[in-house]
Design goal:
- The protein is of the alpha+beta class.
- The protein contains eight helices and seven strands; from the N terminus they run H-H-H-H-E-H-H-E-E-H-E-E-E-H-E.
- The strands form two sheets. A five-stranded mixed β-sheet has the order 2-3-1-6-7, sandwiched between helices. A two-stranded antiparallel sheet has the order 4-5.
């Protein structure tokens, strides 16, 4: 009797732990709520199957020792299965988070990705309607970047891109947006910024980049210059309130301004 009660008690404990972990899976994420809920309900109902023999034996009923031995591994394997599912889901959550972070960052330069740059820019446009403060959009492009790749190879070109990003990011505020939107093109968004201040930032970046050694190859220091196109968005003068449409217009406008800077001789700012 004592052996049977012990075995059923062990099985009951294992089953109860499995139910608790199934409830945890239910609360882990909305994506897994159905699976976790079904497991919790099913395993919870099975608790009655584990409790009933204990009550039956305690009241003097016949002992089925074979069943008592079988319920322990059954409940044990159910618990192990739930624990393994929990571990898999936890690992999946970590991987999904990592993938989400990767999709937001340009893998080469560690600037924001194109999609993340646009998404954050649209949010800043929405904020500007509430704050009534203007936003500066700047398109920065490396001058004669193809010549660097041709002369020193693409690996050195990659180093130049990476160091350019580091140089610019050190000069920008945490609220500013700096994203890679093309091969050597970068969109810079300065929220809550006046045109005068934006002009100062653009000039500071232009000078800093021109004075910085971006790479070394063949015993030569490689320096670059950038051309910058600058446009302002004033929410008080906006004819449209769609952030996607506004961003498209501002993007095209600062891109055209950047090309005017190149046509004017490069290493300068155009508005």
């Amino acid at each position: 009797m004592i052996l049977a009660l012990s075995l059923y008690s062990v099985a009951l404990a294992a089953q109860l732990i499995a139910v608790l972990y199934a409830i945890y899976l239910f609360t882990l994420s909305k994506s897994y709520r159905l699976a976790g809920g079904c497991l919790a309900i099913g395993l919870g109902l099975m608790l009655g199957r584990r409790l009933n023999p204990i009550v039956f034996i305690w009241n003097g009923g016949d002992i089925n020792i074979v069943d008592a031995f079988l319920v322990v591994p059954i409940s044990g394997f159910l618990l192990l299965g739930v624990l393994h599912i929990k571990a898999l889901l936890n690992r999946l959550e970590v991987q999904n988070f990592s993938l989400g972070q990767i999709s937001k960052i340009d893998p080469l330069t560690l600037a924001l990705s194109r999609a993340e740059t646009f998404a954050r820019s649209e949010l800043e446009i929405l904020k500007s309607f509430r704050s009534k403060k203007s936003i500066a959009f700047m398109m920065a492009d490396i001058d004669h970047f193809k010549n660097i790749n041709d002369a020193y190879g693409h690996p050195i070109g990659d180093v130049v891109l990476t160091n350019l990003v580091k140089t610019c990011q050190m000069e920008l505020r945490e609220i500013d947006i700096f994203g890679r939107v093309g091969g050597e093109e970068f969109l810079i968004v300065l929220p809550e910024t006046t045109q005068e201040k934006a002009q100062e930032v653009a000039e500071r970046l232009r000078i800093l980049v021109s004075e910085t050694i971006c790479a070394t190859a063949q015993d030569q220091e490689i320096r670059i210059t950038i051309s910058i196109g600058l446009v302002m968005f004033d929410p008080l003068k906006a004819m449209d309130n769609d952030p996607s449409s506004i961003l498209k217009d501002c993007y095209n406008a600062c891109d055209q301004a950047m090309y005017r800077a190149k046509q004017a001789g490069r290493n300068q700012i155009s508005t």
